[in-house]
Structure formats: structure tokens, C-alpha cells
Amino acid sequence: MPAYPDCLKDFVILVALHILYSVKFFLPFLLLLCLTGVAFAQKALKDSAGEKEPIAVGELGSAASWNTASGKSSFGYSIAAEVTPIENWLELELGVSPTYGVHAKELDADLLFKKPWTFSRKVEFMFGVGVTSTHATDYGVTTNSTGGEIALDFMFWPFPKHQFGWYLEPAYECDFGQAHEQSVGMSAGLLVSIP
User: Fold this and answer.
1) From CA 80, how far away is CA 167, in angstroms rounded?
2) Which residues are within 8 A (CB) of 48 and not within 5 positions of it... i.e. 6 or more apart?
3) What is the DSSP letter of 43?
4) Are 109 and 14 in contact (CB under 8 A)?
5) Model confidence over 47-84: pLDDT tens digits?
6) In degrees rounded to 5, what are phi and psi of residue 162?
7) Model-level pTM?
């Protein structure tokens, strides 16, 4: 079993706690933590072709967001990690995306529950629903809010061993704060299997 740096585990747990505490979902978080712990602790599985399945998949890419009410746009990057607690049924994605616009900056952290479909050996699709926590600063005014997110995740694996690939993830986000802001976003970038 590969060793993970304690700081990575602490970071994942800290972000998940922040998201779930702000949405007041502490009990489901405990269940989620148990499922994720099983995913990290399990031995590497082998797929139908006899190849070793990765423990997690890392995503690193660019991100863009457009607020549908104000018309403001922002750009930045996205970092996420996916684990598979239930093969072919459930994938969990925990991600962070800082974006920057004119007189504004925003840090989004999200936890998505995704249902995967494998179209071919090189193409996968996932539909995800989850929660998001946002820390935004606009013209010096700082706000914190939570919301919901729906994402479509297209994953392309050009190499046979699925070590590297790329992804395209359009998403819709609805803020549960006073303004009930809605935004449409897109992230795209590199996929890296974590053996």
C-alpha cells in the first residue's frame, strides 16, 4: 500500500470539514469519511484487463466562471482529487478552485458525488452533484457562502495504462446565500493517476 503524505490527508480532511460544517451536514460527513477511509485503505484492484486500478485520480487545470446575474467573469485554476469507494457506481471528488476577476477574487471548495459511465477504454463520463463553499472578495467586501453544484465530467485517456489523460468539466453552481447567485463554469486540464 503506498504511503500518503500526512499533509495531503490533513488538507483533504480540513477542506471537507469546512464544506460540511458550513452546510451543517456533520452526520453524512462521518459516513463519507468512513467510505473514503475504506477507499484509501483498500488494496489496489485490478480491472477486467488485469491492470492495476489507481487509488485516486488527480486533476490539475484551468477554470473559468461566469456569473449569470451580474455578467462578471473570472479565471483561475482548479485542483481536485477523485477516489472510487464503489466501483462503477460512486466517485467522490474534492476540489479547490481559486479564480480572479476585475476587483474580485474567489476561492471555491467543492465535494461532488459522481456516477461514472465508461463509454470505451479511452472515454469516461460522470454526472456529479454536490456542495460547494465559497470565500469571495469583491471591491474589498468579503463574503462566505455555501451552495449546490451540478457537473458533467468528460475524461479522455489517450494512453493504454491510464496514467495520464485530460478532462473537460462544465458545471452549474447555485449559491444558497442572500443574493442566490448562479454561475456557469468550465474547467479543463490534465488527469494523473495516483497508483
Assistant:
1) 12
2) none
3) P
4) no
5) 545 567 789 999 999 999 999 988 899 999 999 999 99
6) 55, 40
7) 0.72
Q: What mean pLDDT, rounded, does the chain reach?
A: 81
- The number of beta carbons lying within 10 Å of the beta carbon of residue 190 is 12
Alpha-carbon distance of 74 to 99, in angstroms, equals 6
Summarize pLDDT for 113-134 with one digit per residue, the tens: 999 999 999 999 999 999 999 9
Model pLDDT, residue 83: 95
Name the DSSP letter for residue 5: -
pLDDT value, residue 9: 57
Helix (H, G, I), strand (E, B) or coil at 20: helix
Q: How far apart are the C-alpha atoms of 191 and 166, rounded to whole Å?
A: 5
Residue pointed to by grid coordinates 483561475: 76
- What grid cell was written down for 53? 486500478
Domains of the chain plus CATH, in order, are: 6-194 (2.40.160.20)
The CA distance from 90 to 115, in Å, is: 5
CB < 8 Å & 24+ apart, contacts of 25-32: 25/131, 32/92, 32/111
Confirm if 37 and 157 have CB atoms less than 8 A apart.
no
